[in-house]
Amino acid sequence: MTVASSITQVPLEVEEYLTWLATEKGRSKNTLAAYRRDLRAYTGWLAERGTGLADVEPADIEAYVAALRGDGRAPATVARAVVAVRSLHAFCAAEGILPVDPAADVEPPGVPRGLPKGLSEEEVERLLDVVVGADPVARRDRAILEVLYGTGIRIAELVGLSLGDLDLDDALLRVLGKGSKERVLPIGRLAREALVEWLDTGGRPAMAPARWARRGDAEAVFLNQRGGRLTRQGAWLIVQGHGRRAGLERALSPHTLRHSCATHMLDHGADIRAVQELLGHASISTTQIYTGVSVERLFAVYGAAHPRARPVD
């Protein structure tokens, strides 16, 4: 049986769980929307089998995982759906909404973890050099690329920046990360220069409208050409467009610059816990993914440079 529920509503238990995620855990709107989609599909699948949440057994959850795989879902998609299901049942059992937690002993499926696809330092230079000119759009785009690469912040953190989050005198910026966790980061020299140029006359002021359409737009660091706060999609398109102009073969995304920032810092000897703090990773195991990239480069350099490692001509 495939997983293709047509229901639009979710059970009351799911609504209570989503409310708890929002109020107690501070989950973002995007995260809540993803959980709602996954749990709507799950409860719809159960309804088609004539099973309510109170009647679920471990075998039902295992059958649901099999159904997801049978639909050809990617391993990461299946794992995310199972996390939502396990979390729902754990919440309902802990709150006494349902008598037992049938998912307690159901192991989430593993997800193959690949190495991040970052840019080389030469490719980053090529990307940053492609933005030329002193018009407002060029100043904004140059600042966006420099800040993304220079700080490693997420795209949502970038477009969420407000003017009060910047301290250019001390070269610092404040970001609100996942789970509403705040961190203060240093701004590198070139990123700071790009921000100063963007915020100066001829940059952001020239793009600001005569009257702000929304309250939050007036404080936004980055604006679109209509004078509103730049969106995630807008920033994504800016990065991709300049990637194409720089002749980068693979599709470029804001997250590519985040990967590149972390990898290049580790390549140059940065402490992994400092990189963890910079990127806002809750667990150092997430940051450790990047050490694999650096080890690969270490072996490449060693193989090319060490006299006992180079192939004989």
Query: Based on helices, strands and strand pairing, what is the structural class?
Result: mainly alpha
How many strand units? 3
**Rg from Cα:** 24 Å
The overall pLDDT average reads 85
CATH architecture of the largest domain: Orthogonal Bundle
Question: Helical proportion?
Answer: 40-55%
CATH class bucket of the largest domain: Mainly Alpha
Order of strands, widest sheet: 1-2-3
State the shape. globular
- What profile does the largest beta sheet have? 3 strands, antiparallel
Order of helices and strands: HHHHHHHEEEHHHHHHH
Strand content: under 5%
Distance between the termini: 61 Å
* Quaternary: single chain
Low-confidence stretches: none
Query: What is the CATH homologous superfamily assignment of the largest domain?
Result: Intergrase catalytic core
CATH topology-level name of the largest domain: hpI Integrase, Chain A
Compute the number of structural domains.
2
